[in-house]
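ok so dumb question maybe but i'm new to this and my supervisor (M.) told me to 'just get the structure for Nuclear nucleic acid-binding protein C1D' and walked off. so i did the thing. is this what she meant?? sequence i used:
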Amino acid sequence: MEEQLTTSEISAVPHSVTESAKRSLTHLEAVQTNFFDFLSLSSDPDVLSQMPPLQRAHALLLLAKTITTLFTLKLRCNGVDPDEHQVKSEVERLSLYQNKLESEKRSVKTAAKEFLEKAALELLGSDNEGKIKGPLQLKKGSEDEDNSD
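this is what came out, is it supposed to look like this??
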């Protein structure tokens, strides 16, 4: 008895690969739509000057990574190994900058945490059993003295 072969079994490309390619195309179309908006904003000097330096660095890094990733994808689609192309040095450079930005972000968070811890110690003190010290502390005897006048 002969078996009937379906279209997906005859095709040289597996169905899962075809579906993955369709999803990738849909995602690329979404990137294309939003990329031009992002590009126009990130290349506007007025917009960039209004951003805090760390946020501006993150935006420019995101732009560079997006462009590099799209170029790497184009190379792969044309059968070129990105690891054997000059783009590899750009990917490594962007990775280095990303690590620097992440460490800067961590150091800012660490500095803020240390500041808050020191402020809490200054307000609460370490030896006054959790009572507030300084001008915020009420003395029990001073209330009675004010009422006696």
